[in-house]
Here is the input.
Amino acid sequence: MVLGEQKNERAELRAMKAGAGQSVQRLSVLGATGSIGQSTLDLVGRHPDRFEVVALTANGDVKGLAELAIRHRAKMAVVADPEGYQDLAKALSGTGIVVAAGGDALVEAASQPADCVVASIVGAAGLVPTLAAVRQGRRVALANKECLVAAGELFMREVSAADTELLPVDSEHSAAFQAIGASAARDIEAITLTASGGPFRNWDHERLKAAKPEQALRHPNWSMGAKITIDSATMMNKGLELIEALHLFPVTISQLDCVVHPQSIVHCLVSYRDGSVLAQMASPDMRTPIALALSWPERIDTPTKRLDLAELGQLTFERPDDRRFPAIRLAREAMAAGGAAPAVLNAANEVAVMAFLENRIGFLDIPAVVSDCLDAASSGALCRAVDHIDEILAVDLAARELARSMLEKRGVA
Ligand code: NAD
Ligand code: MG
Here is the structure.
C-alpha cells in the first residue's frame, strides 16, 4: 500500500508544519522533456514560491533539456545518451548548471538532495534511477508505471525499507489513492480503473489489423508520449495499470477490475463492503494528479478545466472487449503467474510497440508478440522468481531478445 496508518500520521504532522509556514520544496524531474515532465514543470512555473528545481534529465533531447534547465534554474542537467554531453555542456556553459551524461549520471541526478523526485522516464529505462531515488529516501511521484510492472515487489519493499512515500501520478491510481484515503484494507471490496478505450474503441478486427501508427497516436482525450498512447490504443496501458494497482493498494488480483469510460472524467472507483462506491472525477489533464503527488497532503492550484457536469450531459461505461483487445487478459495472466512474468510482459510490449511505431509490424501483432513471449518464457527459465534488481534487469534484457526473435519469426527485419 502507498500509505499505512503510520504514514498518515506523518502526513498530518507535515500538514501542521505546512500550516505553520510553507517551505520551498526541492524537486528533481527524471524525464523532464517528456509529456509528464513538461506538465510537472508547467506547474513549477505557476508556483515559483513553492518549488525549486534541483536536477532535470532527458534521454537525447539536449536542446529541450537545456532550455528547461535554464528556464527553471536547475542545479544539474543530465542527458542519458553519452553522445549528448558535449552539446549539453556547450548549451549550458556559463550558466553554472552542472552537466553530466550517461546511466551513472542519471542515478546521480536521482540521488541529489531533494524533497521529491518525479519519475517520468518512459519504460524500464527508468527502473535504476527511480530505485536510486527511493533508496535515498526521497518522496517519489511515480508516473513511470513500468517500474512497478517490472519490479513491483522489489520497489514496494525498498519504499518500506527507506520509510519513504511513493505517490502515484497515473490518473487512475491518484484517483484510487484519493478515494481510499485512510480507509482500512478490510473495508475495500474492489478497485475499478477506468479506461478511455483509446482511438480504436469501436474499430472492428479488419480495421484494427490495418491500423497505422499515426492513427493510433491520435488519442481522443489525453495528450501523452508515443509509447503510452500506443499502449492506450491496444489497452495494454490498462493491463499495466492493473499490475501497478496490485502493488500500490491493499487488494488481491480478483479485487481489481476495469471498465471503459470514453469521456475520461471518472478516473477510478473504489467499492466498499457496505455497498458505497467512491469515485474521483476531473477533466483529463495530468496536471491534476501530478499536482497532488507534489503537494500531498495539501493541494495546490492548477489550470485544469473545471468540470461542468450539466455541459457534459452524459458519462457512459461499458465492458472492455477482450476479443479485440486481448492485452488486459495478457496482463492478468502475467500478474497471476507472478515472479518475472510481468517484467517479461513489459519488455516484450516495449519492443513490440517500438516495432509498430517504426511501421515494422501491424497493430494486432503487438499483443500477439507479447503473448508469444509470455508463452515461451513460461516454459523456460525466464519466468523464475526475481528478488534483486540485477535479476530483473537480466530478465528485462533476455525478454527483449526473445521479443526480437519473435519478430524475426514473423518475418520482421
Ligand atoms: P514521453 O515519451 O513524453 O517522455 C519520456 C521521457 O523519458 C523523456 O524526457 C525522455 O527523454 C525520457 N527517456 C526516454 N527514454 C529514456 C531512456 N532510455 N533513458 C533515460 N530517459 C529516457 O513519455 P510520457 O508520456 O511523459 O510518459 C512517461 C511515463 O509516465 C511513462 O511511464 C507513462 O506510462 C507514464 N504516464 C504518462 C502519462 C501521460 O499523460 N503522458 C499518464 C500516466 C502515466
Ligand atoms: Mg493512467
User: Anything to note?
Assistant: The mean pLDDT is 94. The first strand starts at residue 25 and ends at 30. Residues 31-37, 58-59, 61, 80, 120-122, 125, 143-146, 170, 222, 224-228, 286 surround nicotinamide-adenine-dinucleotide (ligand 1) (CB under 6 Å). DSSP finds 18 helices and eleven strands in the chain.
